[in-house]
Amino acid sequence: MTNNGTKPSLNRRQFLSIAGTSAAALSVSSRFAFAGNRSADRKVRIGIIGGRFGLGFYFHEHPNCIVEAVSDLRPERRDALMKTYKCTKSYESLEKLLQDPKIEAVFLATPAPDHANHVLASLKAGKHVLCAVPAALNLEDCAKLRDAVKKSGLTYMMAETSAFMQTTLSVRKMYKAGEFGKLFSAAAEYNHPGLEVLYFEDKKPTWRHGLPPMLYPTHCTSFLISVTGERLTSVSGVGWGDDSPVLKGNPYKNPFWNETAFFQTNKNTPFRVEVNWRGALRNVERGEWRGEKMSFFMPQSEPGESTIVRSEAKEGLDHGGFQVAKNVVETYKQPMWWETDLMPAPLRHNSGHGGSHTFITHEFIDAIVNNRQPLVNIHEALAYTAPGIVAHQSALKDGEYLKIPSFD
C-alpha cells in the first residue's frame, strides 16, 4: 500500500524512472525496463541447476518461460526441482544438461566457487545465463567473465536479491526523482550469525567453510550501486577473527569471521559495508542512504519499517534543553511493487529476500524476450563483486588502502 492507503500503480514509462543511471548499462539499454513489450508467444526454455537455492524461484509461472529440465548432483534434489517446477526431465550434471539443444537459458544456483567456471561453460554451450551471487571469487575470473560475455553476445545476469527488494525499488525511484538531493554517505550491512552450521555436512567441509565475508559482498554493495550507478573505486578493509578452531584449515586461508570495508566511489561518496558471520547480531540485509534533503534507513531487523528523515527543520529542544533546528522523522509505508503490473499476473505474489525472487525471474526472462540488457548485467555484477575481493585483500594487509579495478 502507498502512504495514502491505495495500491501502487505504474506504467512502463513511469517505472523506467525508478532506475538509476549507470554509464556502463546506459550504453546498451534502458535500465530495469520491467513490463516491456513482451511477445505473448515467445517461450524461453530454461534449465535450472542447483536443488537448494534454485527451488525458490518461479520460472514455471512466467508466461514466457518453460522449465525444460533441471539438474543436481544429488538425486533427491533433482526430484525436488522436478516437483517444484513441474518438470519431467532431469540431468545428473550441468555438463549433460548443457548438451540439451532445447535449452536456451540456464539458472545456475550452484556453489559460489563454481560460478565462474559454470558460467563460462554455459556461455560456451550457447546458453543465456542467470547466476547466483557472487559472480566470481577472484579478479582474474572477473576479467574472464567480462570477456566471455562480450564475445558470446548472450544475456548474462546475476541474481542479486538486494537490487530487487521492494525497499530498493522505492529508494531507486526516490533517488531518480531527486528526493535525496546530493548523497553525502551510504552504508550497508549483511549479518548472518551462526553461518558456521553450514560449514560442514556429514562431517565433511562444504564450500562455505571459512568463506571470507567480503567475498560475498553483493547483498551490500548493490544497495548503493543499483540505486545511483556509482562505482566503488578504492577501499580500506578490516577483519575480525578470534583464532577459532572452526576456521582452521579452510580452503580460503581466511582468518576472519567478520569484515568491514570503507569504500570511496567515483563520485567521492563514502560507503561503509559490513558482512558479519558471527556475533550478537540480528539477521538482516539493509542499507542506508544519507542525503542533503532526505535520508532513508532500512529497518534494523526483518520484518520492520523503514525510516525517512527530511531536512525540513523545525524549532525544538535537544536533550540538554537547548533550542535547535530539528529534522522531520517519519515512518515509510512500503509499497508492495509485486502487486502491480510490473509483474506478469501469475508472478504477482510475495517471494524470497524482500519480494525479490519474482522480480529476478521476470527481469531475466523479459531481457531475453525483448533482447535487452538486464539490470544486473555483467558490468553491474562485477561492480558489485570485485570491490569485496579487493576489500578482503586489504583486510589481509591490515587495512592497506587499495584501488579497485573497473570492469566496465
UniProtKB/TrEMBL annotation:
- Give this protein's Gene Ontology molecular function annotations: nucleotide binding; oxidoreductase activity
Q: Where is the Gfo/Idh/MocA-like oxidoreductase N-terminal domain?
A: 45-158
Give the domain of life. Answer: Bacteria
Query: PROSITE patterns from the entry?
Result: TAT
The answer to whether keyword Secreted applies is no
Keywords on record:
Oxidoreductase
Q: Pfam families recorded for this chain?
A: GFO_IDH_MocA
Q: Tell me what this protein is called.
A: Gfo/Idh/MocA family oxidoreductase
Look up and give the organism this protein is from: Larkinella rosea
